[in-house]
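User: Before I run my own analysis I want an independent prediction to cross-check against. Here's the chain; please return only the structure tokens and, at the end, one sentence I can use as a sanity check.
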Amino acid sequence: MTTATICTIGDEILIGQIVDTNSSLIASKLQLIGVKVVRMLSIADNREEIIQKLEAELSSVDIVITTGGLGPTKDDITKDALMELSGSIEYIRNEKQAAIIDRILSSRGLQRLESNLAQALVPDRAEIIPNRFGTAPIMVLRSKKGKGILYSMPGVPFETSNMLPDVLDDISRRFPLESIQHRSIMVYGLAESALSELIAPWEDNLPEGMHLAYLPNPLFGIKLRLSVYGGDRELSEKSLDRETKKISEILGNKIYATSESTLEEALGSILREKGRTLSAAESCTGGEIAHLITTVPGASDYFLGSVTSYAVSVKEKVLGVSHETIEKNGVVSSEVAAEMARGVRALTCSDYAVATTGLASLEPDRFNPGGTVWIGVDGPLGTRTLKRNYQNDRKRNIQRFAATALDFLRLYILEAESFDKQKIKHLC
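Assistant: Structure tokens:
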């Protein structure tokens, strides 16, 4: 199987000034064409280190893709390192990239500087893929010592993402690529340890050559990724289908998707399919639920709107939460969550509503420990509430509150829609 290493070059990643999004994007796209990523590295802005580490990788894998270090400033030394690595003798001007540089600068109303044109100078042994979205071209070269091929890409994420298809096309022409098949099974509502124990007999009997990975995340729960490397694509797909069916029978509605998906996408699919509408009332989540829902294209088909009722006065005056309810039970309570959900549903005349009230920080109130959330949902089956407590930092607690609310709502809707529609009374 064709193997690859992905390297970022630059001190800014190592000291945490920039988050590396390029590597995950490149890795995800490489696996789709049948290239297995075996390592990811970050290399400092040091000429000797760049040469040493890239030579080592080119000796052990088929492909090395680097990002970064190709700018017009003096601290960008990657090109000089690649000059030595490839055994090039001189720099030559790539006219296609020079023309692109002129066009980009002209469109921005900028004066052309020698440092800009210098980016069109490339090692004489490098093949060039012109960068249509930036000033630094993609260089393709071999080491004097290694067997692999190196692709040097710019570090700007916009340029990397837009030029990656050209690199993948070039890789596909150069290498005999085998099939890599993945299947994502999205699970919510189980801790990783509990999930592992529950599906252990199934996991222990997976077909030879099929691999399982657990990928937890507070926003989507746990992604179970089944992978088959090599072999016949059609047979692999059938094998993945069989195993997906088996685990679906074990986990039931704990699985919200059997493809790469999010809770908000799964929820939106149900609402759109059933022709239902939704509204939200948020306190502790501060609009996070509405934000997640509206990241899905076409959410206006089913999402009517939300009320971010952070203050008690807004809960009472806009949502109609009783002052007596708050006084008796506290703002963070089952009763307030229920009244918030009923209030926003009545306000918007939606089929379903979800509400949150809680303590995102770890400071307690007189009724609850920090990290507590009460979730309310309202719909044709009446009002239901759910209490959870998460001991994370404020930001992560808000994310988990929102994700838990979406899943609680999803399960409520699935139950409601399974009834005879004639027996369900809708609000409006």
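Sanity check: The first strand starts at residue 3 and ends at 9.
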